[in-house]
Structures are given as structure tokens and as C-alpha cells.
Specification:
The chain is mainly alpha-helical. It is built from 4 helices and no strands. Keywords: Membrane, Transmembrane, Transmembrane helix.
Length: 133
């Protein structure tokens, strides 16, 4: 039976508290930033797809290329031939997408690092409790 001084109960309580602390931190500081970035990425992507016919470019690239390098070269050549407006839209979309991916990875990596640190501390605390009992 689990008592108040049970290491298993103590560890479970720590996990629940840390999960709530992380949840509050995530929703107050990270989620709004990710939401704004996601809206911007989708909005700029909608602008890119209405201004540039991606389907037609893909069809032309498939017809004009022999392999992967020719396919990539077609996209690079096509990008520099387009208007400055198209180039700016694609560049802004790529930068926003890069920021969104970076921030999402950072939030997930921080969560896993915090969890790993917490579990290591909890394991060390359990060994200390077991020795003293």
C-alpha cells in the first residue's frame, strides 16, 4: 500500500506537478508564438499558391528534367526568371517556415530535455530515499 512517504507516490506527484507546470508555461509563452507563426506561414503560402501556379511548374519540371539534379536546376532557374514579387513571396514564406520549424523544434526539444532532467533527478531522489529507509 502506498503511504505518503512512498517513493513511487512521491515520483508520481512530482510528474503530475511538472506536467502541469510545463503545460502552463507552454500555453502562456510558446503556444501563442507558434500560433502566430503558423497563421503567417499558411497566409503567405496561400498568397504564394494564388500568385504562382505550383501545379503548372511541377508539370513543366517533370517534362523538362531527366533526373533529380535537372529537376532542382529547373526550379532554381524558374525562381530567378520570375518577377520580384514572386521571389519575395517565396523568400518570405521560406523564412517564416524556417522560423516556425525552429521554434517548434526548440519547444519540443526543451520539453524532452526538461523531462529527461526531471526523470534523472527523480531517479537520484529515489535512490537517496531508498538508502535512508
Amino acid at each position: 500500500m502506498a503511504t505518503i512517504h512512498s517513493p513511487a507516490l512521491h515520483l508520481d506527484l512530482k510528474r503530475r506537478i511538472m506536467r502541469r507546470v510545463y503545460g502552463v508555461w507552454f500555453w502562456k509563452s510558446v503556444a501563442p508564438l507558434l500560433a502566430v507563426e503558423a497563421v503567417l506561414v499558411v497566409g503567405v503560402a496561400a498568397g504564394v499558391f494564388t500568385h504562382i501556379s505550383v501545379r503548372q511548374i511541377l508539370l513543366n519540371a517533370l517534362q523538362a528534367s531527366d533526373g533529380a539534379t535537372a529537376f532542382v536546376q529547373f526550379f532554381i532557374d524558374n525562381f530567378f526568371v520570375k518577377s520580384i514579387q514572386s521571389q519575395l513571396l517565396v523568400a518570405v514564406w521560406a523564412v517564416l517556415l524556417a522560423f516556425f520549424v525552429r521554434d517548434a523544434r526548440h519547444a519540443l526539444r526543451r520539453r524532452s530535455a526538461d523531462l529527461a532532467d526531471f526523470l534523472a533527478l527523480a531517479a537520484a531522489g529515489n535512490r537517496r530515499v531508498e538508502r535512508s529507509v
